[in-house]
Each structure stands twice: as structure tokens, then as C-alpha cells.
Amino acid sequence: ELELLERLLGLPGGNKYGVQGERKVPVLQTNSGPGLTGLMTIAAHLVRQARKDQLLGSSAEEKAVVQQWLEYRVTRVNGGSSKEDTRIILKDLNMHLEDKVYLAGNIFTLADILMYYGLHHIMVDLTVQEKEKYLNVSRWFNHIQHYPGVRQHLSNVVFIKNRLYTHAH
């Protein structure tokens, strides 16, 4: 996932990643000093390295919203494995995205990228009915997967467009 992010950001790659503990927390080995630990920390570091700070939000409020969704991604999406967890996550997101293009409002941020990577395996398995039930999530997910450089080698999740968009508006 972090390697996908590196490529998306246009970084040269070659970073060494490891995992730590039972929960497989990502670790980035740095040449100077201690390694960085945790998905959010490493991802934000990569964004700054690529000088794409706008992905972390522009205003203080956007930055906070991006941070909030990154935390949600790490605590809820990574932790959630049961059908019930998945349903709650999709319901939360669906409500949040009701009047928004992206998680932080009208700008594409790191939150969208990491949430997309975190939800990909869930979205692949949804039935057409489930995708229709979580229409805002489906619309957002479809939009993000077509964002240049995001999807990379991940499979394209198919949405039945005309049905999706006629109901969404």
C-alpha cells in the first residue's frame, strides 16, 4: 500500500518497509535515525517528501478532516473484519459522502487515497444491490479509482453506471 502511494506521488521508491507486532504496523526504515512507525505517519512523510502537501489539506479545518479520516482508516477500517463492522463503515462513509465529492469536501487528499486502498478488498466483494445501497460510497469509490495513478495494479471495481448515476442525483 505504501509502495502504491510512493508510485502515485512520483517518488523514486526504494524505501525499505517492514511490519511490527501482531497488528502488522508498517515501519519505514530511514537512513538517518530511527524508523517511522504507523501508516498515517509514514504516508504523511511520503507526501511531504514528494512536496505534495496539498494532499494533507490546505486550511486548518481540511487538515483536521484529513487527519480524522486517516485515523478512522487505521482504527476502524484496518481493525474491522466482521460483516457488521463493514456494514457500519460503509454506512458511516455513505452518510459522510452524501454532499461531498471527496472525504475532505471538495479536494482530493491523502484520506481518499488511503481509504480507497483500505476499502478496495471490501468493494470488490460487494453485490450490485449492496453497491446501490451505499450509493455515495460507490460514486466516490468509482471516482477515486479513475483518478490518475491511484488504482495501479488493483482490479477495477465495476459499477453499473446508468443505474448508479440516475439514482445518485
From TrEMBL:
<dbReference type="Pfam" id="PF21972">
    <property type="entry name" value="Arc1p_N_like"/>
</dbReference>
<protein>
    <recommendedName>
        <fullName>Eukaryotic translation elongation factor 1 epsilon-1</fullName>
    </recommendedName>
</protein>
<comment type="function">
    <text>Positive modulator of ATM response to DNA damage.</text>
</comment>
<dbReference type="InterPro" id="IPR036282">
    <property type="entry name" value="Glutathione-S-Trfase_C_sf"/>
</dbReference>
<dbReference type="GO" id="GO:0005634">
    <property type="term" value="C:nucleus"/>
</dbReference>
<keyword id="KW-0539">Nucleus</keyword>
<keyword id="KW-0963">Cytoplasm</keyword>
<keyword id="KW-0175">Coiled coil</keyword>
<dbReference type="InterPro" id="IPR042450">
    <property type="entry name" value="EEF1E1"/>
</dbReference>
<dbReference type="GO" id="GO:0043517">
    <property type="term" value="P:positive regulation of DNA damage response, signal transduction by p53 class mediator"/>
</dbReference>
<dbReference type="InterPro" id="IPR053837">
    <property type="entry name" value="AIMP3/p18_C"/>
</dbReference>
<dbReference type="GO" id="GO:0017101">
    <property type="term" value="C:aminoacyl-tRNA synthetase multienzyme complex"/>
</dbReference>
<keyword id="KW-0007">Acetylation</keyword>
<keyword id="KW-0648">Protein biosynthesis</keyword>
<dbReference type="InterPro" id="IPR053836">
    <property type="entry name" value="Arc1-like_N"/>
</dbReference>
<comment type="subunit">
    <text>Part of a multisubunit complex that groups tRNA ligases for Arg (RARS1), Asp (DARS1), Gln (QARS1), Ile (IARS1), Leu (LARS1), Lys (KARS1), Met (MARS1) the bifunctional ligase for Glu and Pro (EPRS1) and the auxiliary subunits AIMP1/p43, AIMP2/p38 and EEF1E1/p18. Can interact simultaneously with MARS1 and EPRS1. Forms a linear complex that contains MARS1, EEF1E1, EPRS1 and AIMP2 that is at the core of the multisubunit complex. Interacts with ATM and ATR.</text>
</comment>
<dbReference type="GO" id="GO:0006412">
    <property type="term" value="P:translation"/>
</dbReference>
<dbReference type="InterPro" id="IPR010987">
    <property type="entry name" value="Glutathione-S-Trfase_C-like"/>
</dbReference>
<dbReference type="GO" id="GO:0005737">
    <property type="term" value="C:cytoplasm"/>
</dbReference>
<feature type="domain" description="GST C-terminal">
    <location>
        <begin position="45"/>
        <end position="164"/>
    </location>
</feature>
